Amino acid sequence: MGELDSFEILPEHALTSLGPNGVPRSGWQRARRASRWHRPYAAILLLLDTSACVLASVTARTFLDTKTNEVFEKNPGLFTLITFGLLPAVWLLVLWGHGAYDRRYLGTGTDEFKRVVRASWTVVAIVAFAAFSTKTQISRTSVGAALVGGLLYVLVLRYLARRGLQYVRTRFNLATHRMLLVGTLQEALEVHQTIARDPAAGLVPVGIHLIEGYSPHPSTVTPVPVHAGRDILSLVRELNADTIAVCGSASAEPVELRRLAWQLEGTGIDLAVAPQLTDIAGPRVHIRPIEGIPLLYVEEPKLSGLGWLFKNVIDRVFALIALLIVLPFFPIVAIAIKLSDPGPIFFRQPRIGREGKMFKVWKLRTMYIDAEERQATLDEQNESDGLLFKMKNDPRVFKVGKWLRATSIDELPQILNVLAGEMSLVGPRPLPADDGDFLGDVRRRLLVRPGITGLWQVSGRSDLSWDDAVRLDLYYVDNWSLVLDLHTLWRTIGVVVFRKGAY
């Protein structure tokens, strides 16, 4: 096929469906979305949120003082009205007002949970104002228990609902968005590769529509069918797609992009724009319209300030608590290591920390004492394509050591590095300083302290390639936030329990 030299997305025959003002007639009515998985899912969230509010009210009753409890005992209908009527209704209305049921935020990302937290503050303000304006004498403890409990119950139940949704997506390929990628072949394949990394997000590319360049040879293998010179709307219907993603340089064609948006009005098909900005999270990206031009601003990473100070405090406090918890079990682990192989209990190795400062990381020894000398004979069996040596069945690891690695217990002594300020609870993984291979983009990970856990650990650990591991570390540096740290710590629990990628 010849070279494509145009990006014609609104063919002449489509103009016949336009109204007198250039807007599709069907666009005047509310379109039914081509993707409708969010409707039953939102209904499930409504039931779960209602249950959470009722459960919070029942829990709060145990904190009622004697005077307030007598009021409810004399008027049981009042408690029933508040528990099963007023409080759930207020919660649901406020959640809806904050967009907690908006399909754009369901199923992926942290925006959904942020909106739930913001809604809880609004509910607190409403309850406080109602009590003040009516001069109602209520138990502050019970009100606090109801509001805090409601927030926690809603977050937990929504998290479980999301896990169920992600399971359905990854296991049965349901509740997904079928996407048609529009752009050059290289740009579309890059977006496809990025989307494919996270099947739980529910984005499934089903085709590529080329806007320029040469159509690939029929023998060229692509992950999805590639089309050229087709009417986009007819192609979307043919592929049963519900989303069009305009990739890379195609998004820089303002006239064609605007026409495509007009053409999709009333069709129920979503339009997404994937600019040439990868691995940059939403908080750093801001759209500021200037005279009708949406300028995309990318802020610098925030690696200082009050949030960064709070991270350091959390590191020390959590590390101290964890040390007190694991200390009683340490003698048992130490004896097991000694019985497996005579030698030191700890293994210390030089690693590169923040700003290139060298430190020695603490780990429980899991290998025989001659492990480093034996590595030269195993280099050909290295299963890692990066700086670290990895083998699933490394003969240098003794039996107890394999169990310590699988359960990540061997990493616990790094709590001492956290207390010393050399490491953090969450951050890029600490890499050895043998060869000084921190060149190019890899050096950027030295802007923060390495962590006991991080995006690498919760995304596959040793099963990941070196490039993917570096990409995740750089993503963390570029998009750090307290929410990202807390989310990573939460995901670490599941990774440790199910021993994902540990060897």
UniProtKB/TrEMBL annotation:
Keyword vocabulary terms for this entry: Membrane, Transferase, Transmembrane, Transmembrane helix
Highest taxon of the lineage: Bacteria
Domain Bacterial sugar transferase: 311-497
Pfam families: Bac_transf, CoA_binding_3
Primary site of residence: membrane
UniProt xrefs under InterPro entries: Bact_transf (IPR003362), EPS_sugar_tfrase (IPR017475)
Entry's localization field: Membrane
The EC number(s) this enzyme carries: 2.7.8.-
Membrane association type: Multi-pass membrane protein
Transmembrane regions listed in the UniProt entry: 41-64, 76-96, 116-132, 138-161, 317-337
Family that this chain belongs to: Belongs to the bacterial sugar transferase family.
Protein name, entry field: Sugar transferase
Source taxonomy: Bacteria, Bacillati, Actinomycetota, Actinomycetes, Micromonosporales
